[in-house]
Structures are given as C-alpha cells and as structure tokens.
Design brief:
Layout (H helix, E strand, L loop, with lengths): L3 E4 L16 E5 L8 E4 L13 E6 L3 E11 L13 E2 L8 H13 L4 H8 L7 E8 L1 H6 L7 H11 L5 E3 H8 L5 H9 L3 E8 L5 E8 L6 H10 L4 H13 L13 E2 H5 L6 H9 L3 E8 L18 H14 L4 E6 L5 H14 L3 E5 L3 H15 L3 E4 L5 H13 L4 E4 L11 E7 L17 H12 L2 E6 L4 H8 L4 E5 L10 E6 H6 L3 E2 L2 E2 H12 L3 E5 L8 E4 L16 E3 L4 E3 L6 E3 L12 E4 L3 H11 L5 E4 L9 H10 L5 E4 L12 E6 L3 H4 L6 H13 L10 E6 L5 H7 L3 H15 L6 E9 L2 H19 L4 E5 L5 E2 L2 E10 L3 H20 L7 E6 L3
Parallel strand pairs: 13-18, 13-19, 14-16, 14-17, 15-16, 17-18, 20-32, 23-30, 23-31, 29-30, 31-32
Antiparallel strand pairs: 1-9, 2-3, 2-5, 4-5, 4-6, 7-8, 7-9, 10-11, 10-12, 21-22, 24-28, 25-26, 26-27, 33-36, 33-37, 34-36, 35-36
Length: 848
C-alpha cells in the first residue's frame, strides 16, 4: 500500500487573530545543510504539529522533500520568508526526543550535519521521495488555447499528448529540451493554462499483506453447509476445495474460527486442488477473499519464553560483580577470554532489565553473529525480540522501527545502525566484541563509531552500558584501568573446555626446503586430514577474498589495474573476472596480455577462493565452504553457511575476518591462520593491536565444548614479539607493551585524532587544496598538532586523488570543542576558493 499526496502551493493565510497563533517549525531536511530550515504552519494545521513527526515541504524551486520537525516556535526567520508546510504525514513522532538529542550530539561530535545524521538514521522506507511533475491542463484538452506556442513549448505539449494522462518530471523536461534552463518554458505554459504542476509523493513503506479466504457468513451454520454441499454435488473440484477448507477451519465445532480464515495460497498451491475452483467459489460469493496485514517477522509464533541456560559458578560471580559495579558506575567492561560464556551473562542481565520494565539494545559487530545469537535469544525472549541489520529489506526495517516505538520489541539485537532506533526507555546497552572496527562507519557521513554512540545513548537515557570482549580495545582497557569504567574479568573457559594449543609454522623455512603444498604446510594439511577423519571440524582464516590479488604477464610484467583506483585488480575464478575491491569495477579475465599479446598470464598471491579450490583437490573427502563478502551477499546467506557448519554438513570453513567474531561451534577442534604476516605488516599504529585481536579471536573458535583445540599459525617470521603474547594468551602483557608505545608517540588514548581527507579528480588541485587546508589549520591550531598533508598508500579511489591530514589533539573537552570550531573554519576557507569548489573534504573524527 502506498500513500499518495497531491497538492498545489497553498494560498496565503489570513492575518493572525488572538485565537489563531502563527506557528513556525524548524525542520531537519535529509540534506547536508549546516543549518535547520524554518517553515510556516498553515493555521488550519496548527493542531497537527508534532515534534519528531514527518512533514512535506518545498525546498528550492522544484524539490519537495519529507523532513523531521525539530522545534516549534512563533519566531519567523530573519533572512528569508518562510514557506508553508505542505502536508503533515504523522500524527505521532517517528523520531523520539531522546533520539533528537542524540542526533544533535552525533552531528556536533563527528563534524557533520543533522541532515546527514537523519539520512543515515531513518530507514529508506520512511524517507519520502518526490519530483515535480507537469501534466496537460484539462481545460486545454477540452478547449485548446488561444495563445501561440514556441518550438520548445510545442515539443513539451506534443510529448504530453502521446499518452492520456501522461506526466513529465522536471528532469524529463530538461532531457527532452536538451537544455538546463527550462523553468521559463514551464512557467510560460502554466501562465497560458496549458499545463499544471503537481507534486506526487509516495510513502515507500508498505505493510506485508496476506491474501486470505473464509466461508461467507451465511454458510457457516451446520445446515447451511450441508445444503451447500448438495448444491455443489455436480462440481467435485469445488467440493474438494470446501472439504479442504473445513478440515483446516472446522466451523461446525466453532463458528468463530471462520472469522480468521486461511491463506488463499494454502488452497491454490495444493497440487490436488484447482485454483480456478477456488476463484469460482469466491466469484459466486461462497468464499470471501480479504486482506490481512501481518508482521514480516515470525517472532509472534514464539511468544513463550523459557530460560534454558544455567550460569556456572564463575559466571554467577561475574554477573554479580557487574550488577554491583552498575550501582556505582554507568559503564562496565566484561573482559572474558574466548569461550568463557559471556553470552549467557548477557542473557541473564537482559532478563533483569526487562523485569524492571526497561528496553535493551544488544549490539553486535557483524550480521554473521546475529544469525547465530538470535536463535539463542529467541528461545528466551520470544516475540519481545527484534532484529535490525542492513540485510533486511526497507519494509522489514520499518517494522522493527515501529515495533520499538510501539513497545512491541523490548529487546533489539542489531549491528551498528541499531543505535539510531527510537528507544526512549533504555535501561541496558550491551556492546559485544566492543573492540571491533566494524562498529565504525566509514562512508558516508556521519562517520560514527557505534560503541561511542552507545556510551552517549546510555548517558542521555540513564542506561547502563556493558562492553564485552576477550581482546578489549586499548583505549577501553585504559579507561577501565583508570577507574573510569568498571572492570570484571572471566579468565577461564566455560565448562571443561581449556584454552587451545597454539603452534607456529615457519613458512619461509619450508619454502626454502620446498615442503609447502601450494599455500599449505604439511603440518596444517596433516592436521586437517586427521580432524576430518575424527569427524571434527576445521576453520581456516585468510583475510583476503577472491582467488588471487594480482595477475601478471610473465613476459612483459604487465599487471591489470583498476581504471578508477590505484590498485591492481583481483582475480575471481568462479566469475572468471578481474574485480576492484574498492570501487567494484570488473572486467573479464583476459586470455592474453593486453600490452604484449603474450598468453603467459599468471596469478600471484591467494585469497579465500583459491584456498577453497585447492582444498577441494587436496582433501577430496572434505566438504569445504567459504564465508566472505562474495558468498554472503544474499539476505539469508549467513544463516545458510553457519547453519550448514553447525549441523556438520561442512567439514572445513574458509573465511575472512567474518569467521573471527564471536561465532560458537562446538565441534571445531582446529583453526588454521594461513598467512599471519599480511595482518601484522600494515602501515598503521593499530596494526599490532588488530593483529593480536584477530589471532586471539580466531584461535578462540577452537575447542569450545570440552575438546582440546589446536591452532596452527603459518608465518614467515615466527620470532615476531606479538606471537609470544598470542601463544600465552597474555592480554595484560600485550596491553602494557602497547600502552607504552601509545604514550611515547602520543596516540589514543593519550590524544584524540581527526583525519581530514581532500579528494579531487585533478591530482595537482588535490595537493594544492590540501596544502591550503594545512596552512589554515596550522594558523588556528599551531603546526605541532597538524601532520601532513601526504598521499595515502592507495592514493586514488573512484577517480579521486587523495591527500590526508591528521590532527592530534589533547583529550580535554574544552580544547576539543575549540579545535573543532577551528577545523570547521579552515574547511570553510578552502570551500570558498573557486578553484577548489569541486574538491571533497571528508572529516573523520576518531579514525580507525
């Protein structure tokens, strides 16, 4: 179902009287505008004003947009005449007051606009779309026009006449005339009463509707049903349909059941029933067809909640410590080793929060995790549980949004975008795997970190926040050690499970001895064969997707590069194409070198796809599956892959970092990290932290249910310091080493960082704009905090050349606020330069 609004620009309202107050509203338009825009409320709509509701407004000459009411007042704007609001969509807020407060903080902290926050926060189906349209005037169609038409006007009229009731958007008019300034032509046609202009707005959200049928009410009594069968005795197909209906809906036992009816598809899809017979019964008034709006979520089918989990002694102690600390502090870090049973503690805390009448938000870093954890939570919380992530359709996301507003969903499990949901009574926020970089939004703005937003949500709504991880972010652990957060530690795995045995394999030595089999050592292959023979499962981790990252001509050295980015194209064997992992460009894999014509093209390196192919040859007895971005694009792909692995239909799961994040498989006894060096040697101050977290997390997938797990790490340099800390699972030693480095070089948590990226399609202009921006920043902040500009490692993406500037600031709030004002002023100076108008200036606060 779609809602359609058609309206003309309203006529000026009469002057205000004492009982007719002139109201104005400030609205948040879903556009990157630095200020709110003010509109006037027509007198007859004064009672309809709702802060947080959606309204339709005209913005500019031809745009009509839906936006959110942020404030209501009686002060007209000074610099422009306020236009009238065209239509009110909602009679109740779709955005709550706590949300508006949070959105303002996000815009201020992450140096973006409120419009960008609203654009990211609202599901697409709640954002109305429109374009101005023109149509032939009925009077012109009936009587013609006494006014002459010029060539452009005649072309428009002829196009509109081709179909009855045809309309053209402004964009289509411009394309038809082939000119940019077409508004005068439209204005002339309107003055001649040849066309009229209208706005057509479509509400994209449509509820899920089931087609159902039921027996007409006058046939429900027993006697009437018997007479009906007598009348249809010569029509056996229709009799079969009625018998099927009465088997499912026994109206002779309970007449009230007929009101509910059954799905029409239940009758029409039965192989022994005739669909035409069903339609004939409907046509003859024996069956009634009706629509029923239903939830897109099957949660209502499981309204009864049971608690199948029993906390062990260590979990009870940890749970009690968390509750005690919550009496003193609002934020607590639960540092539990992998497999220690943090999820069961979360569930118990959620139950306590719900018993107190509050709402709960449970954040996860990956959609893959929701597929597994939701099943566990459903057994406990039933229909009170909502799920929110980007694989849902627009309509499904709106249902969750509305479910939170109405109170239907008291617990929501979601990825980072779930922080935008309309909670107004939060009592607990859980951020699981809080260290994960997946909580950071990179593009477009707002470039927020869901962990930090969750902390602010808790502050605004008086909710407690629990951060959980086996490998906490260095900044988080620092705050806990400083006493800013509470700290609870779980140092042992749940039940009888012990920590896995970790072994390093020196691939450089093995390659020199020619003992490597493709990219596998003999030790790793033998261990895999052994585990598969024992009906145990294996996870292989390689943090690169595709078949091979580089294709090279052996004769001339030519390497296919992306047309838009400064990267080589990765080969994807199953699609037989070369792809750019930055912009999505792809082309067919050439059979000969485009440069010299040689057929000696060879791939170099390896990704998850190559590992999967090699294993299917080397281990023909194994069922191998792959989990990466390429295999999980479909909506339910995560559930399918994880479900097959849980049911042990898959022996070996090859994956990227998706397989490292909190997944719980009881039969995995071996984990292999195929190429550890690629993760460690990365030009970033967080490289060692990320490598440690990734190694420990993926190792934690092994041996979780009593079986002794084993982890084999292939590396060309086993003497690296980080491996010793991973093998001993010594987070504290790792933290002490890392925090010393951060303190010495003034990196977070001892400084706040803001990264500015200048993008331009002209490399020279990108450099000049970056130099100017650096000078402006240095004038305002001093040269010390401003680092750069310099081109990043990948200096061109999507045809834009990049220059980066990094700013290091003190953690003092007053310094930070003043510095952000200075940064905004410096950005405005660059934007005001005519030669840099095409430059894009990107601000990333707290870059990851």
């Amino acid at each position: 179902m779609s809602l359609t609004f058609e309206f003309a620009v309203p006529t000026p309202a009469p002057a205000a009287t004492p009982d007719r107050v002139t109201l104005f509203v400030d609205v948040i338009l879903p556009l990157p505008l630095p200020k709110l825009y003010t509109y006037r409320v027509p007198f007859e709509l004064n009672d309809n004003v709702v802060i947080g509701g959606r309204v339709i407004v005209q913005f500019g000459a031809k745009r009509t947009l839906s936006c959110i009411v942020a404030a209501v007042h009686e002060t007209p704007p000074k610099d422009y005449q306020a236009k009238y609001i065209l239509e009110f969509i909602d009679d109740a807020p779709v955005v709550t007051q706590p949300q508006l407060k949070l959105f303002r903080w996000i815009a201020e902290y992450y140096l973006c606009t409120l419009g960008e926050v609203i654009n990211a926060a609202l599901p697409a189906a709640l954002k109305l779309s429109s374009e101005s349209r023109i149509q032939l005037h009925p009077a012109y169609l009936n009587e013609g026009s006494p006014y002459p038409l010029d060539e452009k006007e005649q072309r428009i009229v002829d196009n509109l006449r081709t179909e009855d009731g045809k309309a053209l958007t402004f964009t289509e008019v411009g394309d038809l005339l082939g000119i940019a300034s077409f508004h005068k032509v439209i204005k002339s046609l309107m003055q001649k009463d040849i066309i009229f202009l209208f706005e057509q707005m479509s509400d994209k959200y449509s509820p899920k509707v089931l087609k159902k049928v039921r027996l007409a009410h006058h046939y429900v009594s027993t006697g009437a049903v018997e007479r009906l069968f007598e009348d249809l005795a010569s029509k056996p197909k229709q009799v079969d349909v009625l018998l099927k209906y009465l088997q499912r809906v026994p109206v002779h036992h309970n007449e009230h059941l007929n009101h509910l009816g059954i799905e029409k598809a239940y009758l029409t899809s039965s192989p022994h029933l005739s669909a035409s017979a069903v339609n004939t019964l409907i046509k003859n008034g024996i069956l009634e067809q009706f629509d029923q709006i239903v939830s897109r979520f099957p949660l209502d089918e499981n309204p009864v909640a049971q608690m199948p989990y029993q906390l062990n002694e260590a979990q009870v102690v940890a749970r009690d410590e968390v509750m005690t600390l919550f009496d003193q502090q609002n934020i607590v870090l639960l540092h539990g080793v992998t497999g220690s049973g943090k999820t069961e503690i979360y569930i118990d805390l959620i139950r306590n929060a719900l018993d107190g009448g509050g709402q709960v938000l449970y954040l996860l870093p990956e959609i893959a995790l929701t597929a597994q954890i939701v099943t566990r939570l459903m057994r406990v919380f039933g229909s009170r549980l909502g799920v929110y992530h980007s694989k849902f359709s627009d309509n499904e996301r709106v249902e969750v949004w509305n479910g939170v507003l109405s109170g239907r969903f008291q617990v929501v499990v979601g990825v980072r975008s779930a922080v935008f949901l309309p909670f107004d009574n939060l009592s607990l926020i859980i951020v699981d795997e809080e260290h994960e970089s997946s909580y950071k939004q990179y593009d477009p703005a707002p470039r927020y970190n869901a962990r930090e937003v969750a902390l602010m949500m808790g502050n605004f709504q008086g909710a407690k926040v629990l951060l959980g991880s086996a490998t906490p972010a260095v900044e988080t652990y620092y705050m806990a050690r400083q006493g800013r957060y509470g700290l609870v530690t779980l140092s042992k795995r749940f039940g009888e499970a012990g920590m896995p045995e970790i072994e390093l394999i020196d691939t450089r030595k093995l390659r020199a001895e020619k003992k490597m089999h493709n990219h596998f050592s003999a030790d790793l292959l033998n261990a895999m064969e052994s585990k598969i023979a024992q009906n145990e499962q294996v996870i292989l981790f390689q943090n690169r997707r595709g078949y091979a990252p580089v294709t090279e001509c052996n004769d001339c050295g030519y390497i296919p590069k992306c047309q838009s980015c400064a990267v080589s194209l990765s080969y994807h064997k199953h699609a037989h194409e070369l792809r750019c992992h930055y912009c999505g460009y792809h082309e067919v894999m050439p059979t000969q070198c485009p440069a010299c014509g040689s057929r000696a093209l060879r791939t170099q390196g390896f990704g998850t796809e190559k590992l999967e192919d090699d294993l299917k040859i080397m281990l023909p007895q194994a069922n191998v599956q792959r989990m990466d971005l390429d295999t999980t694009r479909a909506k339910n792909a995560y559930q399918q892959i994880i479900g097959d692995f849980e049911q042990q239909k898959t022996n070996v799961l090859v994956g990227t970092q998706m397989v490292t994040k909190g997944l719980d498989f009881e039969n995995v006894s071996l984990v292999g990290i195929v190429n550890a060096d690629a993760i460690i040697h990365y030009p970033d101050y967080r490289a060692h932290e990320r490598a440690y977290q990734m190694f420990v997390q993926v190792s934690g997938r092994a041996g979780r249910k009593g079986k002794k797990g084993k982890v084999l790490i292939q590396t060309g340099d086993p003497t690296q310091v980080i491996f010793d800390k991973v093998i001993r699972n010594d987070y504290l030693e790792f933290y002490e080493y890392e925090i010393t480095q951060r303190r010495e070089h003034e990196y977070p948590p001892f400084a706040r960082m803001i990264k500015l990226t200048v993008k331009h399609m002209d490399q020279e202009l990108a450099q000049k704009a970056a130099i100017l921006l650096t000078q402006e920043l240095a004038d305002r902040l001093g040269r010390g905090p401003v680092l750069g500009p310099e081109a990043p490692y990948i200096f061109r993406i999507r045809n834009f050349f990049l220059q980066e500037i990094v700013i290091k600031l003190s953690r003092e709030h007053t310094v930070l606020k003043a510095a952000k004002l200075a940064i905004c002023a410096a950005l405005d100076v660059v934007r005001d330069q005519k030669e840099y108008r095409q430059a894009r200036l990107v601000v990333d606060v707290d870059p990851m």
